[in-house]
Amino acid sequence: MLNFNGELVSKSDLNINYQNRGLKYGDAVFDTLKYENKIYFIEEHYFRLMSSLRMLRMKIPMSFTMQFYKDEIIKTIVKNNLAGKVRIRISIFRKEGGLYTPTTNEIGYIIETEALNFASKENYEIELYKDFPVLSGLLSTIKTNNRIVNVLSSIFADENSYDNCILLNEKKNVVEASNANIFLIFGNEIITPTLNDGCINGIVRMKILDVFKNNDKFTFTERIISPFELLKADEIFLTNSIMEIQSVTRYRKKNYSTIKTEELRLIFESKLN
After folding, report:
1. CATH ID of 2-115, from 3.30.470.10, 2.30.110.10, 3.90.79.10, 3.40.50.300
2. CATH tag for 125-272 (out of 3.40.720.10, 3.40.50.300, 3.20.10.10, 3.40.50.2000)
3. Which residue in 116, 112, 109, 59 sits closest to 89, CA to CA?
4. For residue 271, what pLDDT is reported?
5. Quick one: DSSP state of residue 140?
6. Model confidence over 208-246: pLDDT tens digits?
């Protein structure tokens, strides 16, 4: 069952208007959340979503509060009889009407829920994706439906038996992985690309920077990262809301340690529990 604008409908009964602007123009945003007895980081997800809608000049209904958002997600999980870990995706689109210029800024939404079967990989290999760049700037930091570079890089990874690809921007700087933010470890310094480089403003990225901002051992820096630094790093890890923290073990001829990443993971998990 899907939640379509508050109504629970079967997937086969979902009737999407062919004029849907998310389909025609990518005029939509989405978010992916994890549930296990609770919705992880619901407040951060909600406020990031509201910020994205405002940036895209979509009209947020007064009724679309954080409690409403949470209740709609839980309603969908319960209707689907899901227990344990659950993957949640919400898509919010500007309602149909107009060509490039919309006739309304009102929104509609779809909430999908499914059982989550995910485990971190012990061996994880990455490669650079160089065919097309991510554009730097703040528009790239929000999760719009325009993710074609992520799709193409994921196809490249799959065809070449990599676990993930690292994306670059038009300035040839490291941005992120196909589906995750990226962190490089040099000694006790951990670096990650700036939002201005075009990386997604990831929730786990955000939480890690917050948890470790006053840490005595590790220092975190947001800065421009050259792809040449990937081979110089002691360790690399990726983050998103589903896998949280995933160690990278290989890039080209370089094999990475995972010792400090595991230490960071334990500290991060202890701070959240």
Report:
1. 3.30.470.10
2. 3.20.10.10
3. 112
4. 80
5. G
6. 999 999 888 999 999 999 999 999 999 999 999 999 999
Q: Could you tell me whether strands 107-115 and 125-134 are parallel, antiparallel, or unpaired per DSSP bridges? A: unpaired
Q: Is the pTM of this model over 0.85?
A: yes
Give 116's contacts (C-beta < 8 A, 6+ positions apart): 34, 35, 84, 85, 86, 87, 242
Stretch 13-27: mean pLDDT? 93
Q: Which helix (H) or strand (E) holds 44?
A: helix 42-55
- Neighbour count for residue 213 (Cβ, 10 Å): 9
Structure confidence at residue 214 (pLDDT): 86
**What mean pLDDT do residues 254-269 have?**
95
Query: In the numeric block, which tokens belong to residue 162?
Result: 């990599």
| Distance in angstroms (rounded) separating the CA atoms of residues 137 and 206 | 18
Helix (H) or strand (E) run with residue 208 in it: helix 203-211
The alpha carbons of the chain give a radius of gyration, in whole angstroms, of 19
C-alpha–C-alpha distance, residues 90 and 145, integer Å: 11
CA–CA distance, 36 with 50 (Å, rounded to integer): 23
| Residue bearing tokens 């040449």 | 228
Structure-derived torsion over alpha carbons of residues 242, 247, 251, 254, reported in degrees to the nearest 10: 180
Q: Are 226 and 251 in contact (CB under 8 A)?
A: no
